[in-house]
Design brief:
The complex is a heterodimer of chains A (264) and B (256). By secondary structure, chain A is an alpha/beta fold. In chain A, strands 5-4-1-2-10-9-3-8-7-6 form a 10-stranded mixed β-sheet, sandwiched between helices. The longest helix of chain A is centred in the C-terminal third of the chain and has 24 residues. In chain A, 39% of the residues are buried. With 256 residues, chain B is an all-alpha fold. Chain B has a single domain, classed as MetI-like fold. Chain B is built from 11 helices and no strands. The longest helix of chain B is centred in the C-terminal third of the chain and has 37 residues. Classes of the chains: A alpha/beta (264), B mainly alpha (256). At the A-B interface, β6 and α2 of A face α7, α8 and α11 of B.
């Protein structure tokens, strides 16, 4: 469905040029759940911005169903990491979810229904008239997810969406996303720096190296579904996969450390 | 008595106490420059309720309203354009900074030359003086819209006009209102100044004429009226601002 081929990104020119992404290629199949995981500062967000058409790559291409992605496609939605910056504080929760639907040719009544459905699906029925800043962080991110879903995308990109909520809320939201993926049949690309999270959620994990970024490894996650915070994480296979990803991420760091002169 | 009730009482009592002190002090002073407050108040009643209301207050306030409205429309539209176009902004900034540095009263002779002694010159002066705080604040506000909000509008393919109306302007509104508040007090000052030169009516004209005809009590009644008008305009402004920016106060309280 989504093909990322030989993406590179260089910031600046001449001597000051820094290469953020060297060469990244992978594919995402229809209704697949792919997690992108990598060390801090490895350009995960940059990659996601390129995939969504918000940022242009220095080289390579992104294709969605065969069409090149140059600007955000209509079939795609994106949930940002920082919900407090991506929700409109002057709009109610319902208006936030409704706003992207203005452009779609949907009758007003249908739009209201779509908004109510999306809010209900994330467990926020009855909160439509509130403002985002009246809700907790976890609830705000639910609003952002509801907004993405109401837009009815075929592919949903998520950029470290649960990085700034507490552990319990995070587990709840992870299960919410898994359930919604099942209910809506949406393809999901999920960027995270949390190894447990990536293995718990994904069908496949794309492991990135540190800068300049390449794909270190692509790992299938054959864990049974539906997944469960307790029983899935108890499986020996989960522990093995987790350890595998962990080593893959840590390895290049150690290599780099060896190259650093002893005086530093 | 609760703390809040106490504060409200103090808030009301203090101006009354100040009035009482001035009343007592001026009553027996027999000063030519500071006539008894009782006389000033009675002159106020005789003059403004409603003897000279249509002849002076209405022209003054309509000039102020026209000049201020012009400044709001001009400042906001230019500010939105410059706030969104970095190159244009860099080109325009030195020019704006220069024009802003010119004290608007210096333009009175020019305004009279071009627009004559009627309303237009006065409206021009008020508008030119009020436009800069609104313009600069709009530029700042529009240029400083949270990038993630703009990314969000791009992801959801929001059109240009919708983005401006529902995202950029609301996001910049707190700053735009700050500029409009500064301009509001400027507008009153410039209204008075414009009416003191080559004018035939208005509150500023009345104050100057009263002084020239040694009607010091009437002069003070005009000054008193200006103070009251300024207070009233500010109160109305605050009411509107609170309504429109209710989300902003809520969001800030929520974050804090």
């Amino acid at each position: 469905m989504l093909t990322v081929s030989h993406i590179s990104k260089t910031y600046g020119t001449g001597e000051q040029a820094t290469q953020a992404i060297a060469d990244v290629s992978f594919e995402v199949g229809r209704e697949e759940f792919v997690c992108i995981v990598g060390p801090s500062g490895c350009g995960k967000t940059t990659l996601l911005r390129i995939m969504s058409g918000l940022l242009s790559a220095s080289g390579g291409s992104v294709e969605l169903e065969g069409g090149a992605v140059a600007a955000p496609p209509e079939r795609m939605a994106l949930v940002f990491q920082d919900y407090s910056r991506s929700l409109f504080p002057w709009m109610t929760v319902a208006a936030n979810v409704d706003f992207p639907l203005r452009r779609k040719a949907i009758a007003k009544g249908d739009r209201r229904q779509a908004v109510e459905e999306a809010l209900a699906s994330v467990g926020l029925e009855g909160f439509g008239a509130r403002y985002p800043w009246q809700l907790s962080g976890g609830m705000q991110q639910r609003v952002a997810i509801a907004r993405g879903l109401a837009y009815r995308p075929e592919i949903l990109l998520m950029d470290e969406p649960f990085a700034s909520v507490d552990a319990q809320t995070r587990a709840d939201l992870e299960d919410l996303v898994l359930r919604l993926r099942h209910d809506y049949g949406v393809t999901i690309v999920f960027v995270t720096h949390d190894i447990d999270e990536s293995v718990y959620l994904a069908d496949r994990v794309v492991i990135l190296s540190s800068r300049p970024t390449i794909v270190q490894e692509t790992l299938d996650v054959p864990l049974p579904r539906p997944r469960d915070q307790v029983t899935t994480k108890e499986l020996a296979e989960f522990a093995q996969l987790r350890a595998h990803v962990y080593r893959a991420i840590k390895r290049p760091d150690r290599d780099q450390l060896d190259q650093v002169p002893a005086t530093r | 008595m609760s703390r809040r009730a106490l504060l409200v009482t103090v808030e009301i009592a203090t101006p009354l106490a100040v009035l009482a002190i001035i009343w007592i002090w001026t009553a027996g002073a027999e000063s030519y420059y500071f006539p008894p407050l009782a006389d000033v108040l009675s002159a106020f009643g005789d003059t403004w309720v409603f003897e000279r209301f249509t002849s002076d207050v209405v022209p003054s306030v309509s000039r102020l309203a026209a000049g201020y409205a012009l400044a709001v429309v001009l400042g906001m539209s230019l500010g939105v354009v410059l706030g969104q176009q970095r190159t244009l902004r860099r080109m325009a900034t030195p020019v704006i900074e220069f024009l802003r540095a010119i004290p608007p009263p210096a333009l009175v002779p020019f305004a009279i030359l071009v627009f004559g002694v009627e309303n237009d010159a006065k409206i021009f002066l008020i508008a030119i003086g009020c436009v800069f705080p609104i313009l600069l604040n709009t530029i700042d506000g529009v240029a400083g819209v949270e990038p993630t909000l703009l990314d969000t509008t791009r992801v959801y393919r929001i059109g240009r006009l919708d983005r401006l109306r529902y995202v950029v302007l609301p996001a910049a509104a707190p700053q735009i209102f700050a500029g409009m508040r500064t301009s509001l007090s400027l507008s009153l000052i410039l209204m008075v100044i414009s009416e003191m030169v080559a004018s035939t009516n208005g509150i500023g004209y009345f104050i100057l004429q009263s002084q020239r005809s040694f009607a010091i009590t009437e002069m003070w009644s005009g000054i008193l009226l200006l103070g009251l008008l300024g207070y009233l305009f500010n109160a109305i402004f605050t009411l509107v601002e609170r309504r429109i920016l209710a989300w902003h106060r809520g969001a800030r309280a929520g974050a804090g």
